[in-house]
Specification:
This protein is α+β, with helices and mostly antiparallel strands. It contains twelve helices and eleven strands. The longest helix is centred in the first third of the chain and has 37 residues.
Length: 328
């Protein structure tokens, strides 16, 4: 159990025996752990050096266990400090590695992965190896009809671990039933989602080290191949493209379910916020209605109410006023 902080199994056995007794002589530890006296003495001394025990000055010498919560926490903090130093060094090494590999082996910077199983394996691996953030473009066509309505379990695991997920959805997903509920579930777990029109491709970027571009044409039933883009000027360009599209895309936001606007018009209801997000992303009345489960007439009725509430005469004025108030 304590190997992670540098204790060998035999060291941990001695430490456990010392904690049970709270204090002990070498002879008592030899008896409890069935060790030679020289080994017991050496391990006890190492526990003292680690701050897990203290050594008395009397005769016979007694070793006293330090309270585990404070002593073990101190070791953990030191290990974490050391690991942070290693991470910093890894980032420096990666900068050198990227600079070296960009031109030393240019043929290896773009990898073509073929076969559905291998593509899926590399997609899972790419996510699992992510340390800081995943970024991506999401758009049809989908090889799996359920792909857009099923949660990504790996994403949920990484979000719990502190990895960021930033996803830009193409406006064409608004035509898909269940999309709004799916993206709302992702946002509740920590995903940052935005909508933009005419995304050029499907794309996923893991940190700044690797990207995957599925090769999927309209009408294809499976993803048969993908490009893997390793650290290179091309990967830098894909990262820059994502950030540029992110800046001009429309955030998908959540309000508390059932929230009603205040009398002075200072808040949006849940339905109003979702509708404004869809309209700002370029959705037609038909697409907005499909995403919200409304008829086109219902969408138009809500838009009219928003126009009255904001004192706007056109949809453009609605968008301008909503932006001014920080609603979208």
């Amino acid at each position: 159990m304590l190997e992670a902080i540098g204790l060998e199994p035999q060291d941990e056995e001695v430490y456990d025996a010392l904690v049970r007794r709270t204090q002990a002589t070498v002879t008592e530890i030899v008896h409890d752990c069935h060790l030679p006296a020289s080994a017991a003495r050496r391990i006890l001394q190492s526990l003292v050096e680690l701050g897990l025990a203290t050594r008395s000055t009397g005769r016979p010498v007694r070793y006293v266990a330090v309270s585990p919560d404070s002593s073990l926490e101190a070791i953990l903090r030191e290990r974490e400090r050391q690991l942070d130093g290693v991470r910093t060094h890894i980032r420096a090494l990666m900068d050198v590695y990227r600079a070296s590999t960009r031109f030393a082996h240019p043929g290896e910077l773009i990898e073509v992965v073929s076969g559905r199983d291998e593509v899926n394996h590399r997609w899972v691996q790419l996510q699992q190896d992510t340390r800081f953030q995943m970024r991506g473009f999401d758009r049809p066509p989908y090889a799996d009809p359920q792909e857009h309505t099923e949660s990504n379990p790996i994403e949920l695991q990484l979000l719990k671990r502190g990895v960021k997920y930033r996803v830009i959805y193409d406006t064409s997903v608004l035509e898909l039933p269940g999309w709004l509920e799916d993206v709302t579930a992702g946002i509740r777990h920590g995903e940052q989602a935005r909508i933009a029109a005419d995304l050029p491709m499907k794309l996923a970027i893991s940190d700044d080290r690797l990207a995957i571009i599925p090769l999927l044409r309209a009408g294809d039933s499976v993803v048969a191949a993908s490009y893997l883009i390793h650290a290179s000027p091309l990967l830098d360009a894909l990262c820059a493209l994502f950030e540029a599209v992110w800046e001009r895309s429309v955030p998908v936001r959540l309000t508390a379910s059932g929230a009603e606007p205040s009398p002075d018009g200072g808040e949006l209801s849940r339905d109003e916020e979702r509708l404004l997000t869809l309209l700002a992303s370029g959705a037609t009345d038909k697409a907005a209605g499909r995403a919200l489960g409304w008829s086109e007439r219902t969408v138009q009725r809500h838009i009219t109410k928003l126009m009255r509430r904001l004192g706007a005469r056109t949809r453009f004025q609605v968008a301008m006023e909503a932006t001014r108030r920080g609603w979208i």
